[in-house]
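Fold this complex.
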Amino acid sequence: MLEKFTDAELEAYLDEELSAEDMARVETALRNDPALVNVLAEINGRRDMGVHSIGAIWRRNRLSCPSREQLGSFLLGILVDEQADFIKFHIQKVGCRPCQANLDDLARQQEETEEITVSRRRKYFESSAGYLRRK
Amino acid sequence: MWSPVFRRSLAVQEVGVGQCSSSEPKYFNLTIKIYFFPMTSTSKSDVLLIERIRDGDSEAWGELISQYEGRLLAFVESRLNHRASSEDIVQETFIGLVNSLPNFDTRRSLESYLFSICAHKLTDHLRREGRRPTLPLSSLADESGSSWGLEGNVRGASSIVRSGERRHLEENSLIDALREQIQYWQKRGDWSKLQSIELLFVRGWPNKKVAVEQEIAEQQVANFKFEFISRMRSIIKKQALSEDVFPELYEE
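Structure:
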């Protein structure tokens, strides 16, 4: 049986904003159901025409996302239950990718050695600093 | 023990209500209530950082990289599961940022802007790998004959083509209202309402599925939806925006 997705989920897929698991589900469905490509194209066309969706505005502007500091507090387990529950909901049920990425990054900072981090950052710096405007 | 990273995070946090037991060490029994602030604009410290970078300050550029590279890498790696390719995409993201920085609008959130550049770079990479389809430029060229036709009392596509600037204005008009509404629910502790609306509009779930997920009556979900749509419609009317470009709010 072909998997069903809502328009809001497919729009989030187009923007690379679904959770990694849901992105993979859509990609699997696209391989098995060529008609889904047409549905995506229709959604894309609608957007080209200037039609807005509340979901896309909400996601793009991250209107209910907790801050990084709040995610840090969540990892420490020091938020009150209702707020911790909301963050869990926002990441697990809504599948907010940027918030999940922040959470993964904060957790990784605990594990990664400074040497690895510094080396990676140096690589980014050296490959991009040349584009800075010269005084 | 808390790591220095998390201690630093807590130090800059705006705390609403803190509770601490005097009989136990502070860090064991601390609960914090914080109002959620949506990430819709660049923080003052990021604005200063961007100004320094625009002046060619390479140290500031290094600071920005240190601040954001980890979350971008996690964002990409969750999709690729390949460290070297993920790092390449993050690298391209920073080059994309430095090239577009002269035009960056600091009223936007820097983090959201970085994630959007990163998502574009990742999408390009996945297309090259054949994991993402290349879509027709427009649905109007769709040979299936299917139409995205708007239902109800709304007009067809040709009458609502909008300029980018117009679309931006329309979106901005709604952002403030949505932000205000979300903060209101958070302050009141209306978590069930907030979660229901997020599932209805951000995930696009039907009322019944939301009711099951939230363990509330379907009628309750319908009431939340009705109230929210009414509020959005009144804002659209008040700001003289076109109903045509918000079809989901006018579907029967």
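Chain B touches chain A through 99 residues (CB under 8 Å).
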